[in-house]
Every structure is written in C-alpha cells, then in structure tokens.
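Inputs:
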Amino acid sequence: MDVFRVVKDNVTARQVAEHYGMKVGRNGMVCCPFHDDKHPSMKIDKRYYCFGCGEKGDAIEFVGKYFGTTSKDAAMKIADDFGLDYKIEKYKPPQEPLRPKKSLEQEFREAQDYCFKGLSDYLHLLKEWKIKYAPKSMDEEWHPLFCEALDNIDQTEYLLDTLLNGDVRDRAFLVQNQGKKVKSIHERIREFNNSREKSITRGSGREQSTYERG
Ligand SMILES: [Zn+2]
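Outputs:
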C-alpha cells in the first residue's frame, strides 16, 4: 500500500509534533519550529499553519521540513515511528522453496541432453560404419565396426526415438536406467575419435572414405 496514503489517513500534524517533543497547548497552538518563535504562533491540528512565518502543510510536510528529508522519507519515518504497516502488501515471501524443484528439473534436462547427445552421435557413427565397412564380397571377413553397427543400430534408434517421442515417464525411465549404457557410449565415441586422430596424425593408416574407396 502507498505509504503516503497510510500516513495521511492515520496521522495528524499535531500527533507528529507531539511525538517529536513539541508542546501543543489545549487551544491547538504550538511554538513554530520553523522560525524563532517565543510565543506559540502555529495552529496545529490535522494540518498546520504558522501565523508568524506562514509555514503550512500536513503531517508529512511538517516532518520533512523539520528533519530536512524528502517527503517520501518523511512519510516512511512517520509510518515506522507510529508503527503503521504499509509494507505488508508489498512484502513477498522468499522464493527459496521453488529452487530445489527447479534444479531437479534442470538436472533432468541435463541428463536427458547427455543421453540424447551420446545416442545421436553414436547412431550417426553406426550408420556411417554400416555403409563404409560393409563387406564387398562373400568370403571377406566382416570388419568389427560393421559388426558393431549391425549389433547396435536398432537399439540405439529405439532409445533415441523414446527420448524424442516418449512421454515424460518413458524418458525419465530411460534417463534413469540407461545412464551407464549412455556413459559407455560416450566413452566408445571418445575412444573411436582418439584412434582416428592418432591414425591421421601418424599419417599411415588414414581412414579411407567411401568415395575414395569406390
Ligand atoms: Zn513559523
């Protein structure tokens, strides 16, 4: 709620004058604090008016002038000093209870991304190997990468499809239960990339592309 409204509705100039130590007579007259006033020449009630120097205003203007503050600070000072609760509607409870929930969501999303990245990279490699290392003749011994492709393409495709199209329960189940497998897939990809890099830097066993081959 607006602090000005709260103060204006609840506190008079006379109340603040008395609160800050000025003596107000029964006739509502007080010595003016804004000029050198020997005999009370300020009439003070809800508002105030000085017959000596002409100062006038309400409780907030009185306090602002008296303490030399802005009217906003004056209003807040009055509210605090008179125990007026203007902060209640502005007060927002700390948002901490939401945080753990959010970080769990975040955790799940990251785990899911990790699975997705591993599975899709692996599937990409498997499909490449399946073509690249396919045996060219009946009696040729099958290349281990070709075998690996045949062994794993279907399952990898299935898991990836679940991640992409499954409902949240399926995905959560996959992320939770295939974590080890996905980790080993990431390792497998890293291992394959390392061996490829080595063979490239060594310059000897550079991998042939399907184009070069054909
Ligand atoms: Zn005065």
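Remarks. Confidence is low (pLDDT under 50) at residues 204-214. Residues 3-81 form a domain with the DNA Primase; Chain A fold (CATH 3.90.580.10).
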